[in-house]
Amino acid sequence: MLTGSQITDYLARIGVEGRPAPTAANLAMLMERHLTSVPFETVGLCRAGRAPDLRLSALFDKMVRRRRGGYCFELNKLFEALLMALGYDARPCLSRSADVPGQRDPINHRGLLVALDGDLLLADVGYGGPAPAAPLRLAPVGPQLAAGAWFEAVPLDACWWRVDRFRPDAAGEEPGERLGVLELCVARVEDADFEALSLACSQPGTEFRDQEMANLRTASGHVSLTGDRLVIREGATRRQLDLADADRAAALRDFFGLVYD
Questions:
Q1: What pLDDT is recorded for position 100?
Q2: Mean predicted confidence (pLDDT) in 234-253
Q3: How far apart are CA 72 and CA 16, in angstroms?
Q4: What is the mean pLDDT of residues 125-148?
Q5: Which residue among 34, 93, 109, 201 is the active-site one?
Q6: How far apart, in whole angstroms, are the C-alpha atoms of residue 171 and residue 152?
């Protein structure tokens, strides 16, 4: 569990004052603040050449004290601890990426679920891509608007759900083309179940270990770095830059707040 001072420091890290009550509106606010403050990144993993330390104390030191980021096994674990400390009923879930048509990935993601007001919500801050940036109900209710984008939770069986996103239509007001995002299982799992998954996902030959990546939402879009390619999206505008080594270090500092020796 996080201590009182750790809760205060963590909330300050994501720009939140006081202790927000465990409400749906505050959950959406906490997700938004987290996604615009703490980057998804594999830079530390690539440069260390080993799986990250998943102890809560190590994650707090890395992401709050040293103001680094992490990948799903780090980000969602620490955010889950914050939510629980604030009074939310939060737990992890097994997930897999589903963003490549015709490809079924092995389980490779730690998701995050919150039970609140009779609903089960996906509250994921560790996907590193176009996942819902606000709580998404796991219910067959059709497309849902989450932080300005359309998503849908589709039941696959008694335990598994698929989350799809939609490109906006021409007017940007209704769902357009359907695209896959991830699949998740709502069966209860233990925190320790993700130790082996993190180890497997941090081995040579995996995208997390072999390529430095960073992703951070902004007030008007998001910015991402993959290897030497920096992509900046602001509304409907997209810019791409190919960076040299020195420029990449500056981009990590200026766009993601990441400083590595």
A1: 86
A2: 90
A3: 22
A4: 94
A5: 109
A6: 19
pLDDT tens-digit map of 63-95:
999 999 999 999 999 999 999 999 999 999 999
**Whether residue 201 lies in the annotated active site:** no
Whether 189 shows a pLDDT value over 80: the answer reads: yes
Mean pLDDT (the chain, rounded): 94
Burial class (CB in 10 A: 0-12, 13-18, 19+), 160: middle
pLDDT at 169 over 70: no
Active site residue 164: no
Indicate if 159 belongs to the active site.
Answer: no
The CB-based long-range contact list for 112-116 (8 Å cut-off, 24+ gap) reads: 112/76, 112/79, 112/80, 112/83, 113/138, 113/184, 113/186, 114/27, 114/83, 114/88, 114/89, 114/90, 115/89, 116/22, 116/24, 116/27, 116/88, 116/89
> Of 34, 72, 93, 164, which one is the catalytic site residue?
72
Domains of the chain and any CATH numbers? 4-256 (3.30.2140.20)
With a cut of 70, say whether residue 260 has pLDDT above it: yes
Q: Which of 34, 93, 124, 222 is catalytic?
A: 124
